[in-house]
Every structure is written in structure tokens, then in C-alpha cells.
């Protein structure tokens, strides 16, 4: 009769397994250097740049100096969004002197638009967490560590945004804080908090960290807002975050992820700010309707229009002549007016696209018929 070996309780094995796991985790940086294609990464930084040869170097310098990342395996991907300057040459110079433990990759996205560049970045990333930086956003020295830890501590969160402060070339206009969010400046306190779906407020694309699984499962390859509205990419970042949030993934604000957004004097002029608010307003119809089913959308146009009219009247009564004389007040007025006409503008764009598509098909059919007739005549003459 064979003797049975005594069973070891799970509670006794737990400390031993934890120590083994910690030792294996400590060896990950070594394995990453020896087998770069076989060890999963912890974090990916994607830098979106367009003609950023003079700016992107400062972002890379900040990333080179990150602290608390010695035990992490991470990479940097620079997505060149169809630049016409020396951006690629700048990245190549950095690659020649870059630490071997941190892969620095260059990717080219020929389709113009932030949405296309961000989609490219998520597709080529090699980690479950992807953090997006623009070429004018400077991360604080612990940004990567803070982002990674937050992602590990909150595995159910699909998207979390940064705390973004402005680094102004000149003093902003009076009352600038009222429209600061339109320049991706985010200050929501010193502690992490969730973005409630009912509040209709979402983090900007700069400094955004996304769980790759949540993006790939819920965000289409070509966004609805991939076209430009005015002089601004039409809310593609909002569409990405909104689709992930609607799929059930919570969206949070992480105050420990600090960024500084460099804002040149050209972005603080009256012309730029008014045009910026116009572009945001014209995209409002699309961003609003994303929250509703297709059959509900026609019924929501009038309530939103009534609310926009109320905002316009209240704004004019409150500020009177400042609607014309004050830069911030005029920008807000343009936002409300553009939001009011955004359904008409969107329908016009859809109609124009359909007409162009039909025209192209008619032209193609006509061309084919003419080619066939010409071919028949040539054969008959022979």
C-alpha cells in the first residue's frame, strides 16, 4: 500500500510563489535586452508629430530623463503624420545615441490627421498600455511611472488622462481660464477622479493613456470625425474616449501624471482662438450624437438647438459689448453659434460627399461606355 504525500495548503505556498514571481519580474529587463521580440512590454509612449523637427527633441529629452522606470520594459514610437520638414532626420539622430534598453521607433503615417496617427500608433504598439504625447507636451520626470502604476492599480479603467498645465510664451488674454480646456489644459484637482458619463466631460488626447485592448475592441479603424471641421481636427480624441466609455470602460483623471503644454504666442491671438472655437463648435453635432442611438438622433436636434440659443442669448445679455471687444468672450460666442449651426453644416458635408461619390460613379460609368464605343469603332475599322 503506497503512502499518500501530505498536501500543502495554498496559504503556505503563497509567500514562496510571490518571492519567485518577484525574482522573475526583476529579470524582465535582462530578458528584454537578450530577447527583445519575446518579452512583452509594460508601456508604450506614442508621440504624434507634424512638422515637429524643432519641437519633438524636447519631448524625447524629457522621456530620456524619466525616473522610476528601471524595472519597466517600455518603448517610444514617434508617428510622423506626413511631415514635410526634417522630422525623420531628427529622430534618426536621436536613435543613433539612444539607450539600447528603450526601443525608439520611427513610424510614418501618410494620411493627414491626428486620428489616423493615433490609430497607427495603437496598431504598432507592443504593450497593453499606450500613452499619447503631442510634440508640444512635456512630461514630468515621473509621468511614465505614474501612468504605469495607475494602470496596474486600476485594471478596469480603459482610459485615463493627465493633469496638463500651460507653458505660455506670452501672457494669455484676460479670463483665459474660461476657454483653457480647448487648448488641452486640464486642472481637476490633486487627486485622481473618474469622469462621469452624465457630466459630458472627457479628457483631451494629449497625455491620454489607453488600454490597448479597450481601443482595439471598440474603436473603428476610420473614425466618424476623421474629416476636418474648420481649422481643427474634428474631435477625434473625444470620439475615441467616448466609444470606449460607452463600451463600459471607466474613464479617469490621474492628477499624478503631470504634463506641460507649450503654447506659443500664435495660439493666443484672437484670430486663432476664435477659429479654434469655431472648429470645435462645428464638430459638436457629431460628438453629441455619438451618445444616442440612430433612431434617437433626429429627436435630439431641437433640444440641443434650443439650449444653444439659450446660451447665445444669455451670453449676449451678460457680456454685451464684450462679445465684440473681448477675445475670450468673442471666442465663447463663436463656440455657441457654431454649435447651433453644426447640424446643418454636418448634413451639408454628408450631402456634398454623397454628391461627389455619385458624380465619380457617373463619370466612371460614362468613361467606360465611351471607351467601349471607341474600342468597337476601332475593331470595326480594322
Automatic annotation (TrEMBL):
Residues covered by the Glycosyltransferase 2-like domain: 44-167
InterPro entries xrefs: Glyco_trans_2-like, Glycosyltransf_2, Nucleotide-diphossugar_trans
Keywords: Transferase
Protein name per UniProt: Family 2 glycosyl transferase
Transit peptide as UniProt keyword: no
Gene3D superfamilies per record: Spore Coat Polysaccharide Biosynthesis Protein SpsA, Chain A (3.90.550.10)
Gene Ontology MF term list: transferase activity
Alphabetized SUPFAM superfamilies for the sequence: Nucleotide-diphospho-sugar transferases (SSF53448)
PANTHER family for the chain: GLYCOSYLTRANSFERASE, SLR2126 PROTEIN
Amino acid at each position: 500500500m503506497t503512502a499518500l504525500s501530505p498536501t500543502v495548503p495554498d496559504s503556505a505556498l503563497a509567500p514562496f510563489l510571490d518571492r519567485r514571481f518577484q525574482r522573475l519580474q526583476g529579470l524582465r529587463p535582462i530578458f528584454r535586452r537578450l530577447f527583445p521580440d519575446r518579452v512583452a512590454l509594460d508601456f508604450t509612449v506614442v508621440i504624434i508629430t507634424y512638422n515637429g523637427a524643432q519641437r519633438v527633441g524636447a519631448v524625447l529629452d524629457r522621456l530620456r530623463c524619466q525616473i522610476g522606470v528601471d524595472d519597466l520594459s517600455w518603448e517610444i514610437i514617434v508617428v510622423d503624420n506626413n511631415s514635410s520638414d526634417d522630422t525623420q532626420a531628427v529622430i534618426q539622430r536621436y536613435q543613433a545615441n539612444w539607450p539600447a534598453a528603450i526601443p525608439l521607433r520611427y513610424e510614418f503615417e501618410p494620411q493627414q490627421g491626428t486620428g489616423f496617427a493615433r490609430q497607427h500608433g495603437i496598431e504598432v504598439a507592443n504593450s497593453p498600455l499606450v500613452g499619447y504625447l503631442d510634440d508640444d507636451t512635456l512630461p514630468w520626470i515621473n509621468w511614465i511611472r505614474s501612468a504605469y502604476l495607475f494602470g496596474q492599480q486600476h485594471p478596469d479603467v480603459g482610459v485615463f488622462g493627465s493633469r496638463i498645465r500651460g507653458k505660455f510664451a506670452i501672457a494669455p488674454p484676460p479670463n483665459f481660464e474660461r476657454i483653457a480646456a480647448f487648448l488641452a489644459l486640464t486642472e481637476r484637482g490633486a487627486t485622481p477622479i473618474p469622469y462621469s458619463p452624465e457630466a459630458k466631460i472627457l479628457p483631451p488626447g494629449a497625455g491620454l493613456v489607453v488600454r490597448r485592448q479597450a481601443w482595439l475592441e471598440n474603436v473603428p479603424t476610420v473614425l466618424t470625425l476623421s474629416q476636418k471641421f474648420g481649422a481643427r481636427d474634428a474631435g477625434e480624441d473625444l470620439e475615441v474616449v467616448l466609444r470606449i466609455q460607452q463600451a463600459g470602460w471607466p474613464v479617469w483623471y490621474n492628477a499624478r501624471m503631470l504634463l506641460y503644454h507649450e503654447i506659443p504666442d500664435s495660439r493666443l491671438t484672437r484670430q486663432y482662438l476664435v477659429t479654434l472655437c469655431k472648429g470645435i463648435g462645428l464638430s459638436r453635432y457629431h460628438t453629441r450624437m455619438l451618445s444616442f442611438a440612430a433612431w434617437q438622433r433626429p429627436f435630439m436636434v431641437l433640444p440641443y438647438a434650443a439650449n444653444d440659443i439659450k446660451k447665445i442669448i444669455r451670453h449676449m445679455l451678460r457680456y454685451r459689448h464684450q462679445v465684440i471687444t473681448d477675445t475670450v468672450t468673442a471666442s465663447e460666442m463663436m463656440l455657441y453659434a457654431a454649435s447651433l449651426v453644426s447640424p446643418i453644416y454636418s448634413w451639408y458635408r454628408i450631402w456634398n460627399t454623397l454628391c461627389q461619390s455619385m458624380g465619380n460613379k457617373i463619370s466612371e460609368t460614362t468613361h467606360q461606355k465611351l471607351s467601349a464605343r471607341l474600342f468597337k469603332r476601332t475593331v470595326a475599322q480594322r
